[in-house]
Design goal:
The chain is of the alpha/beta class. Helix content is 40%, strand content 18%. The longest helix has 21 residues, at 201-221.
């Protein structure tokens, strides 16, 4: 089928036909004679190559729009940014009447791992924190049901304040229930479950974007004493990626159809959108539901919007339309083309996605143009160092939680206590291995695979390196590289088995990767039983367990295939646990090889060298060899250069990537908000 612009025709309204994208189709952009359609067709070019003046703000009133928050629903780093950036920004700039508020879904239900509930006026999120809330508003808007027919849905808005930040929770049980369907894929956890009503992650967050847009429209038309219209929108990754299409296109289409005043449309579309891109591998694809989601977002104006959603000129034919990649709905795409600014979460990742197709995927060429025209920047994620450094109060809570442990506080001037913590960690691992009732009591939702009693190693713990990897179990994190490197060093320790490291490997996520880790332990057992005893494999996440492991570990494995910023390496470094990482993304910006951690001397993507010298690339050939090489290098430092190791640990603990440190990330965001540039 061919979609041709029909400006001037009366027959332009209606829903897209079911499964239109499964048929051969093309979109032909005729020259529009109407000014509104001309604006739409040139919107992407204007936004990506913008030279328009950035609006002036006396008072910043920004909304952080995020599917995750570390406070109430965390799966990864984007949840940390969603909570910690507003908290620290407000702490620094509230004196100037600047603030960031947070808009996020109110999730309810029980995934089996995470629970969230609303009890009268207390919302208890999935991360063990509660907030007093009050219902302040209800909005209504259309969204397509299973039969591709529009249906009116209610969304209730709840307001609460925590840690100096105002939260607005958007509630609709049908979309934001986290009770999983019986056929929920094993890798879909937390807010990403296929829920009991059959709502998958892409549809869920398309609904979220539509709800935020509808709230903006409502507040623009009529002021509300409980919630002010924002003057900046922070769209936190692909989940709110449909937002720019709604504010920039849908408003113009409604004016064209006589359903919105131009002044109202201008107020909405002129609110700057800053899209924070975490990792480009996650974009919110949905081929199967492409028609239904587009119809849900743009209703009977969908054909009109689609026919005029012309991308700026670039060399990728798959991104000729801003709402689709090829023939598939892509949730990130509208913001990539139409947001006023794009931010990645490290400078090096910005360079990677604007240069390498294996990092930028279909958006590489667009991001390269944006970078050249300075509508695309990199700001390294911050963290709350006081929360992730060894903390006496937190350590006491951990000891109270595990009951049998006596972890001790330490800092860069007293690293001897870290050696004591290694012995305590060995004690904990051994107790978990031998006492099933104790395991059920402290970490009932974490699966352990054949833990062994290694209590006999405690006495000489300072002579045995402890290496951990407690990342999310997803392919991005490079568990296969870690497994390969561990198997390859086994041969090197056959003559000194007493020095073989203790490995603690696992996290929440993919069952297949957990199976691969179990195979690693079984394979090691066939080679040398004592080696296998030192490999601890688990699946699931418990903060107290992960924190205690990092208190004890000498090294943290981070063999990522891509890592936009990475927070885990910074969390490890703050505890004097040296990262052993690949040289990609934010790992390059945050780890100084040989000074506060270890990085590979080359890095490859799609078989091509993207980091390191030609000489090292020719020597190492691929990431597997490069990671095996850097693991061996780190272990040589442990055994042969303890003084250098100590200095590196002190350097790592002295690093400060705090959001609000002098010149830290909140100051960069403050400048971006005020000027549109860095």
């Amino acid at each position: 089928m061919t979609l041709v612009s029909q400006a001037g025709s009366n027959n332009i309204f209606g829903l897209l036909p079911t499964d239109f994208n499964r048929k051969k189709f093309s979109i032909v952009y005729s020259v529009p004679r109407n000014e509104l359609l001309y604006q739409m067709q040139n919107m992407a070019r204007r936004q990506c190559m913008s030279n328009k003046l950035w609006p002036h703000f006396d008072k910043i009133n920004a909304w952080m729009i995020s599917a995750e928050t570390a406070t109430f629903m965390k799966c990864g780093g984007l949840g940390m940014v969603a909570s910690e950036l507003p908290e620290n920004f407000n702490r620094v700039f509230n004196k100037d009447n600047h603030q960031i508020s947070i808009l996020t879904p109110m999730y309810l239900g029980n995934t089996g791992k995470k629970t969230a509930k609303l009890d009268n006026n207390i919302y208890s999120g999935a991360e063990g924190k509660s907030i007093e809330v009050k219902k302040i508003k209800k909005i209504k808007f259309n969204f397509a049901g299973k039969q591709n027919k529009l249906k009116e849905y209610d969304v209730e808005i709840y307001q609460g304040t925590l840690n100096g930040v105002t939260y607005y929770f958007l509630y609709n049980l049908h979309f934001f229930s986290i009770n999983p369907a019986h056929n929920n894929p094993s890798g879909q956890t937390a807010c990403y479950v296929l829920n009991e009503f059959g709502i998958d992650e892409v549809e869920k967050f398309a609904f979220f974007s539509k709800a935020v847009y509808s709230l903006l429209e409502d507040l623009t038309i009529k002021e509300d004493k409980n919630i002010q219209l924002p003057n900046i929108l922070l769209a936190n990754d692909w989940h709110s990626g449909a937002l720019a299409g709604l504010t920039k296109y849908y408003t113009l289409a409604k004016v064209y159809a006589g359903r919105m005043l131009k002044d109202t449309a201008d107020k909405i579309k002129d609110i700057p959108i800053i899209h924070i891109a975490h990792h480009m591998g996650y974009q919110g694809w949905d081929y199967k539901n492409t028609t239904r989601i587009l119809n849900s977002l743009y209703e009977d104006l969908t054909p009109l919007v689609l026919k005029n959603a012309k991308a700026m000129k670039n060399s990728n034919p798959r991104t000729g339309n801003t709402l689709l990649v090829g023939d598939t709905y892509n949730q990130a795409s509208a913001n990539m083309h139409l947001a006023d600014r794009i931010i990645t979460v490290s400078k090096n990742y910005m360079e990677e996605v604007a240069t390498e197709k294996n990092f930028g995927f279909d958006f590489r060429d667009i991001l390269k143009i944006r970078k050249n025209y300075r509508t695309f920047f990199g700001i390294v994620n911050g963290y709350e160092k006081r929360l992730i450094s060894p903390n006496a109060t937190k350590i006491k809570e951990i000891n109270d939680f595990f009951k049998i442990t006596n972890f001790r506080f330490y800092d860069e001037n007293n690293l001897n206590e870290k050696q004591h913590n290694k012995r305590e960690c060995i004690k904990l691992l051994s107790r978990l291995a031998t006492d099933e009732e104790y395991k059920k009591q402290v970490i009932p939702l974490v699966d352990l695979y054949k833990f062994d009693d290694i209590s006999s190693l405690a006495e000489n713990a300072d002579q045995i390196p402890v290496i951990c990897m407690t990342s999310r179990m997803v392919e991005q994190k490079g568990y296969d590289m870690a497994i390969n490197a561990i198997l390859n060093i086994i041969d090197k320790y056959k003559n000194s088995p007493h020095n073989f490291p203790i490995f603690i490997l696992g996290g929440a996520g993919n069952k297949d990767l957990y199976s691969d880790l179990m195979t690693l332990k079984d394979t090691a057992k066939q080679i040398f039983r004592d080696f296998a005893k030192r490999i601890f494999v688990f699946r699931g996440y418990k903060d107290e367990f992960a924190y205690s492991v990092q208190l004890a570990a000498d090294f943290y494995m981070m063999p990522s295939y891509f890592e936009p910023c990475g927070l885990t390496q910074m969390e490890a470094m703050a505890k004097g646990t040296l990262p052993i990482a690949t040289s990609t993304g934010g790992l390059v910006d945050t780890i100084h090889d040989g000074l506060d951690g270890f990085r590979t001397e080359a890095f490859f993507a799609g078989g091509e060298r993207v980091y390191g010298s030609n000489l090292m690339a020719q020597k190492l050939k691929n990431n597997f060899n490069a990671y095996e090489d850097v693991l061996a290098k780190a272990l040589r430092h442990f055994y042969a250069a303890p003084d250098v190791m100590l200095k590196m640990q002190q350097n790592a603990m002295g690093d400060d990537f705090s959001w609000s440190s002098q010149g830290g990330s909140v100051y960069k965001y403050h400048k971006l908000f005020l000027t549109g540039a860095l």
